[in-house]
Design goal:
The structure is a single chain. The chain contains 10 helices and 7 strands. 35% of the residues are buried. Strands 2-1-3-6-7 form a 5-stranded parallel beta sheet, sandwiched between helices. A two-stranded antiparallel sheet has the order 4-5. The protein is of the alpha/beta class and 195 residues long. Strand 4 and strand 5 form a beta hairpin. It is globular.
């Protein structure tokens, strides 16, 4: 039995829909569908997250990993309710992307070390760690990552522009605002219909 079959079997044994599992690990439902169909594999960070959410050992899920070659978008916001509400908006705005959500900047950084991130949406205020420092760290890992800051406070816009970010959006996030931002990204993203 390969990873795709095991993931589907374990999910179904827990009586979870693909959408419920996607919500638990902060990805869109289509990512779970692709993992279960065997057309894509999650990276190591996501496999660990799946393991924790499904309450199974990683070894039960693993049969080797390969990096997902899709357009990769991450959203980092320490507020779970904001994260959960924003992921479907990003999926509508960028349907060709694999979208991953993180409430902990450390998990997002680990993900970025293992998976090339094309576009990152970062909340500026995230508890102990500022989105401004996360931006710097992401750009240290991959200078081609496009970063767009999200905040409810306009006062941060000047600080945000001094980081090398591609943009700044006010919360709440909307499909229209994301789509207007895509053509303005600093680094071109292959496969992005709006870029």
């Amino acid at each position: 039995m390969d990873f795709a079959e095991r993931l589907k079997e374990i999910r179904m044994s827990k009586d979870l829909s693909q959408q419920q599992l996607a919500d638990m690990v902060f990805v869109d439902r289509s990512s779970v569908a692709r993992w279960e169909s065997g057309t894509r594999m999650p990276d190591a960070v996501m496999i660990a997250r799946l393991s924790k959410c499904l309450d199974v050992d990683v070894s039960e899920l693993l049969n080797g990993t390969e990096e997902d070659s899709d357009l990769v978008v991450i959203l980092v916001d320490n507020e779970k309710i904001i994260l959960s509400g924003s992921l479907p908006i990003l999926k509508k705005a960028i349907p060709e992307a694999s979208i991953y959500g993180f409430t902990k900047p450390s998990e997002a950084m680990e993900f970025a070390r293992n998976t090339p991130v094309d576009l990152a949406f970062l909340d500026i205020e995230m508890g102990k760690r500022s989105g401004l420092t996360v931006c710097k760290d992401l750009l240290d890992i991959n200078p081609k990552t496009n970063v767009v800051f999200l905040t409810a406070y306009e006062g941060y816009s000047l600080d945000a522009w001094n980081t090398g970010a591609s943009g700044f959006l006010m919360k709440p996030l909307t499909v229209e605002a994301v789509q207007k931002q895509l053509p303005l990204l600093r680094n071109r993203i292959r496969g992005l219909s709006n870029g």
